[in-house]
Design brief:
Distance between the termini of chain A: 62 Å
CATH superfamily of the largest domain in chain A: Tetracycline Repressor, domain 2
Strand content of chain A: under 5%
Helix content of chain A: 55-70%
Largest sheet of chain A: none
Order of helices and strands of chain A: HHHHHHHHH
Radius of gyration of chain A: 23 Å
Oligomer: homodimer
Structural class of chain A: mainly alpha
Number of helices of chain A: 9
Shape of chain A: elongated
Mean pLDDT of chain A: 89
DNA sequence: AGGTTATTTATACACTTGCACAACAAGGCC
DNA sequence: GGCCTTGTTGTGCAAGTGTATAAATAACCT
C-alpha cells in the first residue's frame, strides 16, 4: 500500500528515451510481426504493438501514416528476410552445383527457416494477399526471386551433368522443385515434431534428385 | 423520393422467413467463409456475416454460442470439404493404381481445388492455428487423412510394380508426394494465370512418378 | 547553461465490435 | 380461427479500435 509520504508524484508521466528513427521503426516493425504471429491480424492492435515495442500507441503515428502502412512494411520486411536467408545458402563458391543445390534444400528445411512463428506470419499475411494488392505484390516479388534462384542452380546442375534442357523443361523443373521445398517447409513448420532432425532435408534432397533424374549421392544422405 | 401517400409504414419491421435449423446454420457458415475470404478475419464481423446470410446479427447468437465457435465450425466445414473433394478423385474402381494416382494428382491441381478463395481461407485460418489448438487439431486431422490416402495409393502403385517398400520408405514417399501436391497447389492458387491449363497437373504427375522411380506413361501427359 | 526542436506521452473522440435482451411475428397445433 | 412456441428482429451497451491533437520532455546546439 502506498505510504502517505510516498515520494513519487501521483500522476508521474512515463519516463522515455529518444531512439533514432531507424531503430524505432525497426523496433515497431518487429513488435508488429511478433503481435501478428501471436494474436493474428485482429489481435495485433496498435496498443498491443506499442506495448511490445515499449512505447505508447500514439508514437506509431509519428513513424507510420497509419496501421495499414505499418503492416505492409512489416510484411515486406518479413518477405525480404525470408528470401535473403534462403538465398544465403547458395553462396558457396568452392562447391559443385549439386552440392550447392543440396545445401540449398537442406538450409530451407531446417531451422531457422523451418519455424512455426514465420509460418504463422506467412500464412496470415498471405491470406489477405487475395484482397490486398500491395501484399500480393510483395509476395509475388519474393516468390519469383526465389524461383529464379532455383532455376539458376538447376541449370548449373544439369549443365554439369551434360544435360542441355530447353527453357520450358528448365521452368518445369524449377516449379516442381520449388513446390517440393515449399510443401516440405509447410509440413515441417506445422508438424515439426513428427519428423526426426534432418529427415525432411533428406526427403527433400531425394525428391529433388529424382525430379532431375540424378543418381543419388552418398555424401548428402542424413549423417 | 418517397411519396406522401407512401403506403408502407415508416418503421416497418423487416419481413423474414423461418428456415430450418440445418439450413440456417449452413447458410451462416457459408456466409462466414465468404466474409473471411473477402475481408479476412478482422473484416469478418458478425454484422458482415449476417448481412451476407440475409439475416440480422443478433440471430447468430441463436445458433452459435459466440463468434469463436462459428469460426471454428466454419473452418471444420472447410477442411472437411477440401479433403472430401480430394479423396473423391480416388474412387475409380476399374482403374490401375497408377491411373488412380495420376487422377488424384490431376484432380488436386485443377479447379475446383485450385481456387484463390479456398487458398485465402486456408491460409487465413492456418495462420491462427499456431495459437488456437482447436484450429490446429482441425487442420491436423484433415492433413493426416489426406496423407494416409496418399500412402495407401502409393503402396498399391508400388505393389503393382513389384516393389515391396518397407514402412519408412513408404512414409517418405507419401511425405514427398504430399509436399509436391501441396506446393503446386499453392503455386496454382496464388498465380494461376502464370500456368497454362493442365500444366501444373503435368508437372505434378511427372514429379510424383520421378519420386516413385516409375517410367513415364503417355496417357497422362497433357493432352 | 539555456533555448529549441521534435520525439514521446497522454488524453479525447468518433466509430465499430461482440454480446445481451426485450419486443415481435411466422408457422405449427388444437 | 386463436394460441403458443421459438426463430428473428431491433436496440442498447460496455469494451476496444484507429486516429487526431495538445501537452510534456529528452536531447541537441550554441
Amino acid at each position: 500500500m502506498p505510504d502517505a509520504t510516498d515520494p513519487a508524484p501521483m500522476n508521474a508521466r512515463r519516463k522515455f528515451r529518444r531512439e533514432g528513427e531507424g531503430r524505432r521503426r525497426q523496433d515497431l516493425i518487429e513488435a508488429t510481426l511478433d503481435s501478428v504471429a501471436e494474436y493474428g491480424l485482429q489481435g495485433a492492435t496498435l496498443r498491443t504493438i506499442a506495448l511490445r515495442a515499449g512505447v505508447t500507441a500514439g508514437l506509431i503515428r509519428h513513424y507510420f501514416p497509419g496501421k495499414e502502412e505499418l503492416l505492409q512494411e512489416a510484411y515486406t520486411a518479413l518477405v525480404g528476410r525470408m528470401t535473403e536467408q534462403a538465398k544465403a545458402a547458395l553462396v558457396m563458391d568452392d562447391a559443385s552445383p549439386r552440392q550447392r543445390l543440396a545445401a540449398f534444400v537442406t538450409a530451407n528445411l531446417n531451422a531457422p527457416i523451418i519455424d512455426a512463428r514465420v509460418f504463422s506470419l506467412w500464412a496470415t499475411f498471405l491470406g489477405r494477399a487475395g484482397a490486398d494488392p500491395a501484399l500480393a505484390r510483395a509476395h509475388r516479388d519474393g516468390y519469383l526471386g526465389f524461383r529464379n534462384e532455383v532455376e539458376a542452380v538447376v541449370a548449373e546442375v544439369l549443365a554439369a551433368e551434360q544435360h542441355k534442357p530447353d527453357a520450358g523443361e528448365l521452368r518445369h523443373h524449377a516449379i516442381a522443385i520449388n513446390a517440393i521445398i515449399d510443401g516440405l517447409w509447410i509440413e515441417g513448420c506445422l508438424a515439426g515434431e513428427m519428423f526426426s532432425p534432418g529427415e525432411l532435408a533428406a526427403i527433400g534432397i531425394k525428391a529433388v534428385e529424382a525430379e532431375l533424374g540424378l543418381a543419388p549421392l552418398k555424401q548428402f544422405q542424413e549423417k
